[in-house]
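G.,

No rush on this.
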Amino acid sequence: MFNKIIQWLISLFKKEETHSEESYEQTEEAPDETEEHNIEQNEPIIQMNNYSNIMIHVDNGHASSTPGKRSPYALHKVPPELDFYEYKFNREIASLLKSKLEEKGFKVNMVCQEVNEDVKLTTRAERANAAKKNNANMKHLFVSIHANAFGNGKEWNSARGWSAYTTKGQNNSDKFADCLYDAAEKILPQYGMTIRTNKAPDGDRDYEENFTVIYKANMPAVLTENLFFTNIEDTKFLMSDEGKNAIAEIHLQGIMSYSDKYLAK
């Protein structure tokens, strides 16, 4: 009888020990779930800037009727066969940029819808100014998209690189240009492309000329010269899908950076 009692007590002890081990295992698993939950709860909340009150006025320079504005091959069949037309390129970049901007919530005004008519520069600026007046509750930026050239168009040459122009003197357009330069310097070197800067006379990177289309725009305005279509390497890049996307992305990132710093508040 005594032996049976001892065996019964031993069996009870073993059950308690087994139950304790099971409880310990469950306790060991529980912190993982709790810790994971806490990580989720403590992850930083990414605040997406609201760009819906910002209108970007996009000007695609020139038209099919503009004299020149073509690669040496397009003008004079100088090999290699890089059949580049600036008006076409400018419109492709403007269209890509429009899609990218709208995906981020910006409002976009395409300043020049015409393809064959080279709309006057003053008219382009006036269209942007009119849209600004009709949307006075919004904030506004203007960008005119171009590609650069050097020489008489009869031969390829070594001039190359990306650059941006503002009007003369210091103003908000210089801040906008800085943001575009930051984006260009981040993106273009990945593809072996170069950046052109002009530190004179005010120490910043952009070139300064009172080009009518930006001079007449009543808002921060920048004209971009997106590489040279008279340079073989630049033109190859500009004609590639990769190159077109990179150029559009420079404009998007520059616009977003300026908006984040100065507008989206």
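When you get to it, here's the other one too:
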Amino acid sequence: MAAHTQFYSHILAIEKLESEGIHMSSMVPNDKNSKKPRTDSFGDLMKTMNEFFHEKPIKGFLQSIDDFFKSPFPPGANFHVDTIETGNEYIISAELPGIKREQIQLNISGNYLTISVENREIETAEDENNQIYRRKYLQQKSSRTISLPHTINEKNVKASYRDGLLKVRIPQEKGKMIEIEE
């Protein structure tokens, strides 16, 4: 539960108790000798806090924080990658649902394969007169780098993409055996 939502539910509970004639003590806690009430009541403070958290821009700010923690990373920011070693090749699979082939880039450098995904969107909102009153540009980029134990020969690499699954096949390089002389 969001912090401000939890706070708001506590305020409602206190207001309900006060409406039933049960009031919170306005005496300073743990001070049994003090008969002097505080200058402002707890209820007034709670009402002021309630108003503060429900006015703009605070309400919008708190809502954006809640939205961030519901989905802290954009969809596709972290994609699942599996690497399988068979007897003669490495098969690297990446799950990329909803991604188009044009959005995927493969880069080979030494013994590293990097899979990058870039998504650019423009979201536009228009009023009844077809005038734009809000335009939102969204760019998401994510990548994963896989390290293999040998240098990758890019001429022998094969990649395919079907139904949201990218498969990259990299043949294992056979090293040259060297005889040891006596």
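The mean pLDDT is 76. Residues 3-19 form the longest helix (17 residues).

Enjoy the weekend,
O.
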